[in-house]
Amino acid sequence: MEARRWLKSQYEGVGLEASIDGVGNVLGRSKNPGKALLVGSHSDTQPTGGWLDGALGVIYALEVARALASDKATAGLPVDVVSFQDEESRFVGCLGSRSLTGALTPDMEEGAMDKDGISMADAIKQAGLAGAARVKLSRDRYAGFVEAHIEQGPTLEDTGNRIGVVTGIVGLRGIRFVFKGQQNHAGTTMMKTRRDASTALYELAHRINTEFPTAAAERTVWTMGRLKVEPNATSIVPGYADLDLQFRDASDAPLDALEKIAGRIVTEMNARGGVKIEATPARAPIPPTLMDEGLRKHLEAAAEKHVPGKWMRLPSGAFHDAGIISSTLPSAMLFIPSIGGISHDFAENSRDDDIVLGCQVLADAVASALTEGVRA
Amino acid sequence: MEARRWLKSQYEGVGLEASIDGVGNVLGRSKNPGKALLVGSHSDTQPTGGWLDGALGVIYALEVARALASDKATAGLPVDVVSFQDEESRFVGCLGSRSLTGALTPDMEEGAMDKDGISMADAIKQAGLAGAARVKLSRDRYAGFVEAHIEQGPTLEDTGNRIGVVTGIVGLRGIRFVFKGQQNHAGTTMMKTRRDASTALYELAHRINTEFPTAAAERTVWTMGRLKVEPNATSIVPGYADLDLQFRDASDAPLDALEKIAGRIVTEMNARGGVKIEATPARAPIPPTLMDEGLRKHLEAAAEKHVPGKWMRLPSGAFHDAGIISSTLPSAMLFIPSIGGISHDFAENSRDDDIVLGCQVLADAVASALTEGVRA
Predict the structure, then answer these.
(1) Can you give the pLDDT at residue A282?
(2) Do A237 and B225 touch (CB under 8 A)?
(3) Buried-most residue among A170, A364, B145, B208 (CB within 10 A)?
């Protein structure tokens, strides 16, 4: 809360009407007339995360508001700024942006508790925010939203680009596979009579890894990083296993194709008898979100002006508040390179000149979008 | 101890000199002259195990001693009986038979502790056996050892046979595979730059399951029922994994061949780079043990007499005290069918007529071996 109050005072220092809303979002509102652009990101990170994560975009927004206000040519442009609460899911992932767009439902809030057992309601009370109003964004006030962020991956660095203009935020689907076999003695049960849940798991997982590349798009990713085998003993044929498959892409078509492949493999394996495999969606899928083309054009033009040929379009493999805000406002995102692609780690960093460049590109794009209008 | 004292009194009741030795073995020694046959099994089972496991062979031995002693034609034959201590490894697997053959080393005993933290030394003290002598078997006294046991698998039932004559006890080898990759974000790390430990594990395990059948013998078994993936989270590319492979056969040749295949797959996968796989023997291998042909002939002849054409030779997929005793004495084993192949479970059972038949076959084989001599 001390940091939020500091940020609020910074917002006020550049001439904005500042407030901390009922879930902890810090907002700065321009007094200039006309449809505003909202600029910002989140200020939290993971427990052992780095210094740039969302904080970079929050400070960029403050600097953009300050810089544009201090230049006569842009001083009249309506730039609002925001620091979103709890993007990283202490209570609810993207809590702040969900609240601002009305996507935070009462039952999401009801059960929300952090890993130490503190409820979201108590945390809000303790922060002194229980009586504060919860701000809602309206299309009447805003022309759009722009978020700057570190890439959190190695693509910009690997390709020698200094700015990334995000084309979309990848969608995410999950399937949980459950394998039901028969637990047995590993010495006395012959291979042909076994119904070994782990054998089926290894086959399914390896076939997914072998067959998915045939239908994957360039940046499709999939992961099978969580599994359970029971009883997980060296001398026992496992009777039960489960496995999570998570797959992401910036458009639905490859996700549909991969889902079909996984379904076909399960059908084929079940047709052979033996271990019975059940496949169920592991969670509500997150649909891919396309960034607004009109806003993107301004980011691209600004990038080309500052570093000609040294920027690229790319999808975001990680989720962001912009994915939530885009349901309500045209939204766009700008990336700067992460050194070694490292994020959510104390080692997270970006080059100083990239940090400066990113803010210049963002400021120019915000100014041109507000001056020329946001149209595709 | 109460059960052991009861058994000792039963041994005495059929004219044997009975004792409980320093590790809890119950022994009954015949007073008849000549080289004796030792007959018996273990009286413990697993915590939720069944009523027959080793107890069948212990009671068979008592009944064989009683029956032969009560028939004038066989009353002079020297039959010793034994109930081995702790075959199932509360402290040390096959503790009793190891002690009898001198295979129980001081450092095995030193560290021996049960899962509740009770040391073997304390348990022996509490049982009042700390001062009791530890018996050693000698080839001077014994012509051999015969153990009867339930099959603990489905082969006899599946083939319609009522007696199994064990050809050998399978050997067991283990390999632990360790997979060292790079932990990463499951959204921002592209497939081609990943070093996913789980992907390598699935490939290795599936290739083993696919390639092992080409070199396996008829009754070779292998199991990969224990593994670990770290951090085992749906959204994280795992950087570490390990996997146990256990493989068993009654002879060394297929085990050698499988070991070679596993080694070749590891070499091939390591040559591709990416995840680094290390393969190390998981434990001291147990070599396959052949049962004594001379003793087997007597079991086979007795089986053929009682159930012509309804008995078979088979290896034992589970380990037994006979595998330990065979290092010191010619040893043989007899199996009766397990209903549904179930063992180490309350549901463990055998048909009454099979239980009766097994004891008759054992008694006849013991009598003929002692009368005609044990020669291949």
Answers:
(1) 67
(2) yes
(3) B145
Name the closest residue on chain A to residue B224, using Cα atoms: A234
CB contact under 8 Å between B221 and A189, yes or no, is yes
pLDDT, tens digit (0-9, with 9 covering 90-100), for B105-140: 888 888 888 889 999 999 999 999 999 999 999 999
Q: What are the pLDDT digits (tens) for A220-232?
A: 999 999 999 999 9
Residue A241 has pLDDT above 90, yes or no: yes
What's the average model confidence in pLDDT over B224-229?
Answer: 96
Fold exhibited by the domain A2-170+288-372: Aminopeptidase (3.40.630)
Compute the distance between CA of residue B108 and CA of residue A185 in angstroms, rounded to an integer: 25
- B26-81 pLDDT per residue, tens: 999 999 999 999 999 999 998 778 999 999 999 999 999 999 999 999 999 999 99
CA distance B182 to chain A (A): 12
ipTM of the predicted assembly exceeds 0.95: no
Å between A101 CA and nearest CA of chain B: 24
Which chain B residues touch A174 with a CB distance below 8 Å?
234
Q: Read off the DSSP letter of residue A337.
A: P
CATH architecture for segment(s) A171-281: 2-Layer Sandwich (3.30)
Beta strands A26-29; A17-20: pairing state: antiparallel
**B194-205: pLDDT as tens digits:** 999 999 999 999
Burial B235-265 (b: 16+ CB within 10 A, else e): bbbbbbbbbbbbbbbbbeebbebbbebbeeb
Query: B2-169+288-372 is classed in which CATH architecture?
Result: 3-Layer(aba) Sandwich (3.40)
Q: Tell if the CB–CB gap between A196 and B225 is shorter than 8 Å.
A: yes
Residues in chain A within 8 Å Cβ distance of B201 = 202
pTM of the model: 0.78
- Shortest Cα distance, chain B CAs vs residue A294, angstroms: 25
Spell out the domain ranges in chain B. 2-169+288-372, 171-281
Q: Does B173 touch chain A (CB under 8 A)?
A: no
What b/e string do you get for B188-218 counting C-beta neighbours within 10 Å, with b at 16 or more? bbbbeebbbbbbbbbbbbbbbbeebeebbee
